[in-house]
Amino acid sequence: MNYKIAIDGPSSSGKSTVAKLLAKKLSFVYVDTGAMYRAMGLYFIINKISCDDEGNIEKSLQDINIDIKYVNGEQQIYLNSENVTDLIRTDLVSKYASVSSAYLKVREKLVAIQRELGQKNNVIMDGRDIGTVVLPDATLKIYLTASQEERVERRYKELKQKDSSILKEDVEGGMIERDYRDTHRENSPLKKAEDAIVVDTTKLSIEEVVDVILKLFIEKRGNYNEKIK
Question: Which helix (H) or strand (E) holds 184?
């Protein structure tokens, strides 16, 4: 039996950072599903395919191979055999990923890969439809959230390190737009699974959030805590 932890929530709620730390503590495989969609978005940008062009996007899927490898415990994303881990964390790639992820064929392709990983490993996955679609049988489902003000501040600080000219109002506008797309798309919209536990990270440190989820997991699995000491 494989253990599966699903972490969903909006952007900048702390999903990826928390999931990575949890994976290390539990010696689980961490799967950043958002990075997989970003890799697809990067492909569309490189090949000058508009994120609104669903027809050409679907046609191009047969030419896209996305793979995950782990180097020193860190997830690396490969797009057609090229490591693109450091190329997918831009606002433009984020927009392309958000828009194109609404298309059914795009989701079907990546969800199949994600489910296969969950069948073979003890996993922690974070994204927007993990508990509702990808891993509906997850051992533990978490819905991470935070106030919009806090999420904007986190995203602004992250982008400011890469581009000192970035404006906070632009970050806020982009986040509002993405939140709307994610929650209103027809295919697998962002929403809390009925059996997910909400964890508000607004006033919690990353370490505190990790501790909360770790305790919830141990409670779910009973004596499993002896295995992770």
Answer: helix 168-184
Domains of the chain are 4-217 (3.40.50.300)
DSSP string, 74-120: EEEEEETTEE-GGGS-SHHHHHHHHHHTTSHHHHHHHHHHHHHHHHH
In this predicted structure, the answer to whether residue 216 has a pLDDT above a threshold of 80 is yes
Report the relative pairing of strands 82-83 and 74-79 from DSSP bridges.
Answer: antiparallel
DSSP summary character for residue 39: H
Element (H, E) at 177: helix 168-184
120/116 Cα distance (integer angstroms): 6
* CA-only gyration radius of the chain, Å: 17
Cα–Cα distance for residue pair 22/161, rounded to 1 Å: 25
Strands (E), the chain: 4-8, 29-32, 66-71, 74-79, 82-83, 123-127, 140-145, 197-200
In the prediction, which pLDDT does 89 show?
A: 86
Q: What is the pLDDT of residues 24-42, one digit of tens each?
A: 999 898 998 889 999 999 9
CB-CB neighbours of 125 under 10 Å = 28
161 CB burial (10 A radius; 0-12, 13-18, 19+):
exposed
Mean pLDDT confidence for 60-82: 89
Rounded Cα–Cα distance for residues 169 and 81 (Å): 37
Sign of torsion, CA 112 117 118 120?
Answer: positive
% of the chain exceeding 70 in pLDDT: 96
